[in-house]
Amino acid sequence: MLTFIPFLRYMKRVLSFFFLSLLALSCTTKGHYTSSPIANYRALWEVLDKGYCYFDEKLPQDSSWYDMYNKYLPLIANDMGQDSLFDVMGMLLSELKDGHVNIIAPFDVSRYSRWRSDYPPHLDASIRSRYLGGSYRIAGGLYYTPISYLDHAKDSIGYIVYTSFSNSLSESGISSAFARLARCKALIIDIRGNGGGYVSYSTLFSSHFTDKRVLTGYMRHKTGPGHREFSAPVPVYLDTLKMGIKWLRPVVVLTNRGVYSAANDFTMNMKNLPLVTIMGDQTGGGGGLPRSSELPNGWAVRYSASMMTDADDRQVEHGILPHYKVALTPEDVADGKDTLIEEAIAYLNRTTKEYRLTGVYKK
Questions:
Q1: Which of 10, 51, 163, 166 is the most exposed place for a label (fewest CB within 10 A)?
Q2: Beta 300-310 vs 214-221: how paired, if at all?
């Protein structure tokens, strides 16, 4: 049985980011060190005021970022300790409701996770592991097998679980997995609970599912300190592989609110492809491209600095809707079944049959 520990992996990723950020910032950022609580609080507010990209999306219409500054200013005192200052800064940042916004200190990392924790997970990890069985293969971060659980061997459907885009992924690993699933008529890719990682892995994985260049979205970069100072939208394309194995058969991608950041990007890419269907719950979002800055006391702050939208130029920061919304039911859990996987199997059996008869794939 597999054990999935996305939070621990998240913390490992963030702490690694902290040390790399401090190394980079120590080489590139010039400024005067001060431990003054008010100076650091003001510096934090100003960094986001000039660089954050989602104020219009995140703050209520009747409030401003300056209102947030004033809200927490009374909690700042010259004689407060580091822990207390860290906590107040974390409260200020939590007003943005953004999982890409963090204070990173040597002793802690602030975090906002209600994009995931406020919603049902639609996932039972112990049941999901039964669909992988005991003979699954591993290609880097991919766990894969033809599904045989609950007499599904007859359906000839491959199953891939990818729990984090921080886990190793390579062209050779993906192609090797596809070669060993070649007898399967269709594929289920389960990224529920995948909190992101490297966008380059998202692009690499997605590129195995298209035979032509596809517009997947637009990127806008901050061009000035104003909250609405952005570049013109820059088209973002997904290119097909120049070498390696492509999977040009029907695919279902399973999502939930735990899908964030690079996993959200993967969902956005895949949703544009004609043979791919997204099923499950809305993703958690995380469409901003983060950057980091250093505060006068040496702490790092990470924040969303560039804005991503989908191929129709719609926001993806708050998540991406599936083609078909499916919830995990208590009845299925009691029977040892995963509702989302079962629905995906039934859907693929039906649509692949029609596809073979008509040559047209209808989602």
A1: 51
A2: antiparallel
